[in-house]
Each structure stands twice: as structure tokens, then as C-alpha cells.
Amino acid sequence: MSNLDTRPDVLVCGGRRDVPAEPVHEVLPGRMVPLGESTMVRRLLPTLGRRLVGAWCFLDHYGPDDIADRPGMQVAPHPHTGLQTVSWLLSGTIQHRDSLGHEQLLAPGQLGLMTAGHGIAHSEQSPVSHPALLHGAQLWVALPERYREVAPAFDHHPDLPVVTDRGLAATVLLGTLAGATSPGTTYSPLVGADVTLDPGADVRLPLEPDFEYAMLSASGAAEIDATELAPGALMYLGTDRREVRLRAESGARLLLLGGEPFDEQIVMWWNFVGRSGDEIATYREQWNTGDRFGVVHGYQGDRLIAPTLPAAPLKPRGRTR
């Protein structure tokens, strides 16, 4: 998925300086931004208050949207470097195409994991014939220095492990949760899980004390350690947790993100993750001139053009704004 801002900020993120050494309950503000021709998303990472949760550096939550009589998601070919994209659907279908030649229809419960590494381009769109509802999340994971130039790849995992407990079912997207490990490739210690709570559920989910965590309520209201989390909101949970208590009177669908605090500083701009402004400028030039990223075949339409870089110099701001 693309950051389609025409004037995207340059963000410098990373390091442990702003990671609390204790559990917290911080509700982070999101903002509505357009995605492609007909989709609006809630951008929850990066946001005012926090730029990273572990290596998770970007989170868009969209829907549920009624697209029965609309084209749905239409995101033209665009590039990525230095990150992995995680596509996760709760309702609907999305057609993925990339410059490696992969073409994959993604459905709910299936993990679409694209490793950009040195550089890749892809498009995402609702098929011409598609379900009435579209609801999901798109996430990025920053690659550490050792792996950020890894060869690009795309993996489709239709079968993922599920952790169950009294009224809870947690599908493990990436990493390990409660002894269940996703088949998705990771390059730093992290976890992602889709947590469904039945009406009346009151359970404790085991966590890693060295990780920092956040939870998104994709649908339904829930209580996180007796603190209310409204639908569409993201709550940052801090570190030093061995478990989290989850309650839902009427049922809820939550997305759990966690990982070891990301030590390295990264520069994010548009759809690139790098280590300096000069690198970002090089990536932008290479994309606009047709170098480095390859060609996405099968998409009917023009590719995106990278916007103009901001004139202001980079200002390192750590993990929070």
C-alpha cells in the first residue's frame, strides 16, 4: 500500500530514548487520508505521539466500506525500499501485482507479505467483481541495517496458526504468540496478531516483557486492562508486560502489534525507508526515471510519480513527535 500524500513529511524514527520502561495506556490520534481514487483510510502510524512500535512503522486501517457499486481500492504501481508490507483483510478481496511478476488475490485470513529490501514496485486494487464490503489494514515493518538491501520477495500464506482461549481466537500474522509461530519471514523480533473477542470475553493474553506493544480496535469496543478502546482507535501499551487483560461486552476485533524497540534511526518519506535524506532523494530519482524498481505488469493505468521533496532539512525527532 502507498502513502499517497502529495506533500509527505520526512520523518526520522527509531532508538529507545522515548520508549517507556513500564506499561502505559496511551490512545494515539489518527487522521483520515485518501488512498487511491475512492478509498479513505485512518492513518494510525506514524502519528502525533508515536512513530514506531517495535519495527512496525506504518499502519493504515480502512473500512468497513460498502463498495458494492464502487470500484473499491485502486492504488497504482508505486515503489518501496527498506521495509516489508503486511496486507491483512477482514472483509473483501484485493489483487496484488508486483515487479517480480507475482499476481495474487488476497482474501480475509490470508497473509500477503512483501519484502521490499533493495527495491520493489507493486499495485493493489479491488477486482472488477468484488464483495460488497472492504475492511482491512496495511502495515509496514522497517528492515534493520543488516537486511535492508535484501533481495525483494513476495510471499502468500493462506494458512496461519490460531491461538484460542475462553472467548478469544488470535490469528498470528507474524512472529510468535503464546507458542504459536507464523510462517511469515521476519528480520527483527516482533509479533502481529488478529484477535477476535466473543461477546462477554474476559481473558489474559501472554506477552513478552522486552517488547513494546500497541492494539488497534478494528471493530467493536474493548477494554484493555480496564481502559476503554473505541473502534478505530490505537492504544500504545508500553513495555514490561507479561500479559494484557482483554474484555469485550459485545465482542470486538483487535490488531495486536509488538516488538523489541527498534534501536536504529530510519528516515521515512513517501514510500521509502532509508537512513539519510540523500538516500531518499536517490530512491525518488530512480523511481521517477524508471530505474531500480522494475515494472508492474497487468495494471490498467499509469504508475504513481513521486512527489517533490520538501525544502526543509531533516530534523531528527526520535520515536515521538
TrEMBL record:
<feature type="domain" description="Pirin N-terminal">
    <location>
        <begin position="43"/>
        <end position="141"/>
    </location>
</feature>
<dbReference type="InterPro" id="IPR008778">
    <property type="entry name" value="Pirin_C_dom"/>
</dbReference>
<keyword id="KW-0408">Iron</keyword>
<feature type="binding site">
    <location>
        <position position="78"/>
    </location>
    <ligand>
        <name>Fe cation</name>
    </ligand>
</feature>
<dbReference type="InterPro" id="IPR011051">
    <property type="entry name" value="RmlC_Cupin_sf"/>
</dbReference>
<dbReference type="Pfam" id="PF05726">
    <property type="entry name" value="Pirin_C"/>
</dbReference>
<dbReference type="InterPro" id="IPR014710">
    <property type="entry name" value="RmlC-like_jellyroll"/>
</dbReference>
<feature type="binding site">
    <location>
        <position position="80"/>
    </location>
    <ligand>
        <name>Fe cation</name>
    </ligand>
</feature>
<dbReference type="Pfam" id="PF02678">
    <property type="entry name" value="Pirin"/>
</dbReference>
<comment type="similarity">
    <text>Belongs to the pirin family.</text>
</comment>
<protein>
    <recommendedName>
        <fullName>Pirin family protein</fullName>
    </recommendedName>
</protein>
<dbReference type="InterPro" id="IPR012093">
    <property type="entry name" value="Pirin"/>
</dbReference>
<feature type="binding site">
    <location>
        <position position="124"/>
    </location>
    <ligand>
        <name>Fe cation</name>
    </ligand>
</feature>
<dbReference type="GO" id="GO:0046872">
    <property type="term" value="F:metal ion binding"/>
</dbReference>
<dbReference type="InterPro" id="IPR003829">
    <property type="entry name" value="Pirin_N_dom"/>
</dbReference>
<keyword id="KW-0479">Metal-binding</keyword>
<feature type="binding site">
    <location>
        <position position="122"/>
    </location>
    <ligand>
        <name>Fe cation</name>
    </ligand>
</feature>
<feature type="domain" description="Pirin C-terminal">
    <location>
        <begin position="193"/>
        <end position="293"/>
    </location>
</feature>
